[in-house]
């Protein structure tokens, strides 16, 4: 019996008699009047006003009926047996166990999906993480067949000042907003990743470094004029860019772009520097 007072499972037990149960009948439209027939020369029936809730897996089971307390037998007196109804809780328990198993399975799936996402994504920004980015770029460079491609590294200027002045939550919001901007500027098949801290990297397939520089200049100007915000604060930032042509060696290309970024910072920041390989 469930907590609403309805029967989830029922079983019939006939004691002290030589009769056998031969048939069970149920009517979904009315309370269960005829429950069983007795195998004798003459058929007798148990009559009661008991309503049964069927399997909770069935659509019909969503309609629960109240239980009435009276059970009336139509058998002649003196036959010398007792009819009993035993209400089991096992069905309810098995249903709850089934539901708990489903909940646990759902949790495991969600946890597995989260772990898979952590393996390829930066948890704060949703961009690729460094490891996944490097793997994908190396695969792309292997398939480039001497086609031009560029690598672009971006570093937010004086980002520590943002955290110190507005707090780390504000800094995190700036990183997320800038990441969204990068995804708009460099949609697939470009690849965008967060290297760590306030540093980002972009892989631009089929893009000459001259074109990459034009794109970087547009983005640099947009970053410098965009009003990043956190709560009631408006935050202004600038960024430095280093660009290099991508070669078959990712490490070589990355080193050149990083060198260009270093020069941009040394020369006053908020600028784009290109190094040809």
From TrEMBL:
Any GO BP annotation: cell adhesion involved in single-species biofilm formation
Domain GGDEF: 147-277
Coiled-coil segments on the chain, per record: none
MF GO annotations: diguanylate cyclase activity
SUPFAM superfamilies membership: Nucleotide cyclase
InterPro entries: Diguanylate_Cyclase (IPR050469), GGDEF_dom (IPR000160), Nucleotide_cyclase (IPR029787), Rev_trsase/Diguanyl_cyclase (IPR043128)
Any one GO cellular component localisation term in the record: plasma membrane
Family matches, as Gene3D superfamilies: 3.30.70.270
NCBIfam families named in the record: GGDEF (TIGR00254)
Name recorded for this polypeptide: GGDEF domain-containing protein
């Amino acid at each position: 019996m469930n907590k609403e007072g309805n029967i989830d499972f029922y079983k019939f037990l006939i004691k002290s008699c030589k009769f056998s149960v031969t048939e069970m009948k149920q009517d979904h439209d009315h309370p269960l009047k005829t429950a069983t027939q007795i195998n004798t020369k003459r058929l007798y029936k148990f009559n009661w006003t008991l309503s049964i809730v069927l399997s909770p897996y069935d659509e019909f089971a969503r309609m629960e009926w109240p239980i009435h307390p009276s059970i009336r037998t139509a058998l002649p007196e003196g036959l010398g047996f007792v009819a009993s109804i035993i209400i089991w809780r096992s069905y309810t328990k098995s249903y709850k166990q089934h539901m708990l198993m489903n909940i646990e399975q759902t949790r495991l799936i969600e946890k597995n999906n989260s772990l898979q996402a952590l393996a390829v994504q930066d948890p704060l920004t949703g961009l690729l993480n460094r490891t996944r980015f490097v793997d994908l770029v190396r695969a792309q460079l292997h398939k480039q067949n001497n086609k031009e491609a560029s690598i672009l590294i971006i570093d937010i200027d004086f980002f520590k000042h943002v955290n110190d002045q507005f707090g780390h939550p504000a800094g995190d919001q700036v990183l997320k907003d800038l990441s969204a901007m990068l995804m708009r500027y460099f949609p697939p098949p470009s690849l965008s990743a967060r290297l760590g801290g306030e540093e980002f990297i972009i892989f631009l397939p089929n893009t000459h470094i001259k074109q990459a520089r034009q794109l970087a200049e547009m983005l640099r100007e947009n970053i410098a004029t965009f009003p990043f915000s956190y709560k009631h604060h408006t935050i202004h930032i600038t960024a430095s860019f280093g660009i290099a042509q991508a070669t078959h060696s990712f490490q070589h290309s990355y080193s050149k772009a990083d060198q260009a970024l270093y020069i941009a910072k040394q020369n006053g920041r908020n600028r784009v520097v290109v190094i040809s390989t």
